[in-house]
Design brief:
Layout: H1 2-43, E1 45-50, E2 53-58, H2 62-82, H3 88-99, H4 104-115, H5 118-124, E3 128-139, E4 144-154, E5 158-172, E6 183-192, E7 195-200
Antiparallel strand pairs: 1-2, 3-4, 4-5, 5-6, 5-7
Helix pairs in contact: 2-3
Protein name: Conjugative transposon protein TraK
Keywords: Membrane, Transmembrane, Transmembrane helix
Length: about 200
């Protein structure tokens, strides 16, 4: 009986000891976890000096801003690509900047417009071309975008307004000075560029 009691006590002591070790291990892991969370939260806290007074500001998650950056990139590309003046140097500079934001589909569309004499007509007629963005739709499931806007061609005697509907895809890439948003537009194409109105200017 004495031996059995001793064996039972030894087993109980082992169970209690192992349980205590496991419990202590869990407490240590939980402590590390909460400490890590506190450090991460503290890194997101930024103090900004406002006239010498520190003001707490929270750092936003980069991923939360990505849809905004996608739309900004799409708008920037269209603005650079379609904002033109009767100046060859200005046109080439804007087109060059826009081509950093897109794959070969942008170069193909530029070549197509150049072969049609579009840029020569802008220079010859002293026209100004600008665009107005109506809306930009994003489909995050397949990284597709749709751009809706209007293209205005201002000539000496008239103002032509054309619909501008285009679509394509977008992809995350490394940020660079020429592509600060880190977004590359792909497989871009113009769906509709029909004329909406042609208003004559008043001549005095």
């Amino acid at each position: 009986m004495l031996i059995k009691n001793l064996e039972q006590r030894i087993k109980i002591n082992k169970i209690v000891s192992l349980g205590a070790i496991a419990f202590a291990f869990l407490i240590v892991i939980a402590g590390f976890f909460f400490a890590y969370r506190m450090i991460e939260d503290s890194r997101k806290s930024i103090y900004i000096l406002d006239n010498g007074v520190p003001v707490l500001a929270k750092q936003t998650d980069v991923l939360l801003n990505r849809p905004v950056e996608y739309k900004a990139q799409i708008e920037l590309f269209h603005r650079l690509f379609f904002t033109l003046a009767p100046d060859d140097s200005y046109i080439k500079e804007n087109i060059q900047k826009s081509l950093y934001l897109i794959d070969d589909s942008g170069k193909k569309e530029y070549t197509n417009l150049r072969e049609k004499g579009f840029y020569n007509q802008i220079v010859a007629s002293s026209s100004m071309v600008s665009i107005h963005t109506d809306s930009i739709l994003l489909n995050k499931e397949n990284n597709k975008f749709q751009f809706f806007g209007k293209q205005m061609i201002t000539r000496k005697s008239s103002v032509i307004t054309r619909k501008l509907f285009s679509e394509g895809f977008f992809e995350d890439i490394i940020r660079s000075p020429n592509n600060p948003h880190g977004v590359l537009l792909k497989n871009w194409r113009i769906i509709n560029n029909e004329e909406l109105s042609n208003q004559s200017k008043n001549s005095y």
